[in-house]
Design brief:
A hairpin with a 6-residue loop joins strand 2 and strand 3 (52-53). The radius of gyration is 16 Å and the shape is globular. By secondary structure, the protein is an alpha+beta fold. It has one domain (2-82). Helix content is 25%, strand content 20%. The two termini are 30 Å apart. It has 2 helices and 5 strands, in the order H-H-E-E-E-E-E. Helix 1 (2-18) crosses helix 2. The strands form 2 sheets. The protein has a 3-stranded antiparallel β-sheet, with helices on one face. Its EC number is 1.14.14.51. InterPro entries: Peripla_BP_I. One of its GO terms (molecular function) is (S)-limonene 6-monooxygenase activity. Pfam families: Peripla_BP_5.
């Protein structure tokens, strides 16, 4: 849920920065943005691949259905757009590729 909340707010910041809702201009304005997330971390939109730098959290489900975080990173980490464990991924670009469809 936090990712959606952050994404909507970052999109709004990018629209404000770009001064338009033009997709290409908003996409360019997203690069490098930061946003203070409800989790208490300041998240960053990667300037290269537009993936969100986020903390890693490991939790357990309590008997009441709530989650309890049992471990987390000290700060957000950069996302890997492609798994290094899948053959061929090392040849994929680390930048957004515009669809030709």
């Amino acid at each position: 849920m936090e990712a959606t909340y952050v994404g909507i707010h970052m999109w709004a910041q990018a629209v404000e920065k770009a001064g338009t809702t033009d997709v290409d201009k908003v996409r360019a304005a997203m690069a490098g943005q930061t946003f203070a997330a409800p989790s208490g971390f300041t998240l960053t939109m990667d300037a290269t691949n537009h993936h969100l730098h986020k903390p890693v959290m490991i939790g357990e489900i309590e008997s009441n259905g709530q989650f309890n975080v049992v471990w987390q990173t000290d700060k957000p980490i950069r996302a890997q757009p492609w798994s290094p464990y899948i053959a061929g991924n090392d040849k994929k670009p680390d930048t957004p590729v515009k669809s030709t469809n």
